[in-house]
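Supplementary Methods. Inverse-folding protocol.

Structures were first reduced to a discrete structure-token string of length 130. This string, shown here, constituted the complete conditioning input.
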């Protein structure tokens, strides 16, 4: 009975934990977490590429396309900036695994995108610790 229920709810028989069931239900209601992260990472790459080619209009377009209107990230931003210790180290480590180079722009926009993505990861870490 339990394996059948687990297989129906979670679609995986190897995982016998409620975390899998909870994650499945959350992802079913709001599957935009990965999409939003990938979108912001794409805009960071677009901004960096435009910066390398000295294309200010493309840089502005990429910067404007970042998910600045995401309320969850906006709320978490001051929490991330104020965080320290293991909590922040996890987020920074996850970010550095995806974006291994530091921000290199004189106007600070690339650094702002970096901090925004870190704040997004911070919200994910609060909900589902890394």
């Amino acid at each position: 009975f339990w394996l059948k229920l687990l297989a129906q709810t979670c679609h995986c028989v190897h995982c016998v934990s409620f975390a899998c069931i909870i994650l499945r239900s959350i992802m079913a209601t709001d599957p935009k977490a990965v999409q939003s992260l990938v979108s912001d990472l794409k805009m960071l790459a677009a901004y960096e590429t435009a910066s390398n080619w000295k294309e200010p209009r493309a840089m502005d377009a990429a910067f404007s396309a970042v998910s600045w209107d995401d309320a969850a990230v906006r709320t978490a931003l001051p929490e991330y900036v104020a965080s320290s210790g293991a909590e922040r180290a996890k987020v920074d480590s996850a970010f550095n695994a995806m974006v291994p180079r530091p921000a290199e722009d004189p106007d600070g926009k690339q650094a702002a995108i970096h901090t925004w993505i870190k704040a997004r990861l911070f919200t994910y870490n609060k909900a589902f610790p890394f």
